[in-house]
Amino acid sequence: MAITMVMDHPLVQHKVSILRDENTGTKQFKELVSELAVLLAYEATRDLPLEDVDVQTPVDVAHCKMLSGKKMAIVPILRAGLGMVEGVQTLVPSAKVGHIGLYRDPETLQPVEYYCKLPADIEERDVFVVDPMLATGGSAADAIKLIKEKGAKRIKFLGLIAAPEGIEKLRSAHPDVDIYVAALDSHLNDHGYIVPGLGDAGDRIFGTK
Ligand code: PRP
Ligand code: URA
Questions:
Q1: How many angstroms is it from 54 CA to the middle of ligand 1?
Q2: Which residues are part of the catalytic machinery?
Q3: Do the Cβ atoms of 112 and 139 come closer than 8 Å?
């Protein structure tokens, strides 16, 4: 069974609290999303394989470890997932970036796909799917289904705020996918918004409201 991790690090909790605040403006919101993505990526890369290397220091040879060259990809779910890309890239600069465009139909709450462009060698890469919100879980579950259909085998989901319904949906649709989130909230409201959540992540990142 894959991991479901709600980060309890004090820095994560502090930053999420500011993120939630309705008085936090677009500039700070974007910065916090990016910083939280760094912290999530730090945890999600904990199992990267290492190899032994000898490094000549000015004093002696040090027997060290270095990453054994795993190939990675970051796939944001448009739009809001874009806000997390730079943060993950800070830790994994060699990762290729794919994009999946999905929006939730406001009536049915079902995800509607409008774009998909992934690295050609996606089947060889460890994939980080990023999206700040895991609400009903429909968008993440559909995005991961698409990525799997293109051949990817090792996928992790990184999000900021999840509802229990979203975790449940993603777990049952993709039991092999590790989930890392910064907070787990109470429930969804009648419009499929996470309560208490932070509102519409895309609008707050891009200032469209
Ligand atoms: C938001 C969010 C997720 C989705 C989560 O995107 O960024 O992609 O909703 O909801 P779900 O778990 O119920 O599918 P939205 O559809 O608002 O599109 P946007 O990022 O373009 O604003
Ligand atoms: N999408 C958002 O941006 N926020 C929510 O609370 C749910 C879906």
A1: 46
A2: 104, 108, 200, 203
A3: no
Per the DSSP assignment, residues forming a β-bridge with 101 are: 78, 115
What is the β-pairing status of strands 111-117 and 99-104? antiparallel
Q: Are 7 and 21 in contact (CB under 8 A)?
A: no
For the record, the structure tokens of 196 come out as 């208490």
CA distances for 119 relative to 41, 147, 150, 159, angstroms: 20, 10, 10, 21
Task: Indicate the pTM of the whole model.
Answer: 0.96
Question: If you ran DSSP here, which 8-state letter would residue 45 be given?
Answer: T
Residue with tokens 């939730």: 104
137 lines ligand 1 (CB under 6 A): yes
Number of H helices, E strands in the chain: 6, 13
Q: Is the CB of 33 under 6 A from ligand 1?
A: no
| Tens-binned pLDDT, residue by residue, of the chain (209 aa) | 799 999 999 999 999 999 999 999 999 999 999 999 999 999 999 999 999 999 999 999 999 999 998 899 999 999 999 999 999 999 999 999 999 999 888 888 888 999 999 999 999 999 999 999 999 999 999 999 999 999 999 999 999 999 999 999 999 999 999 999 999 999 999 999 999 999 999 999 999 98
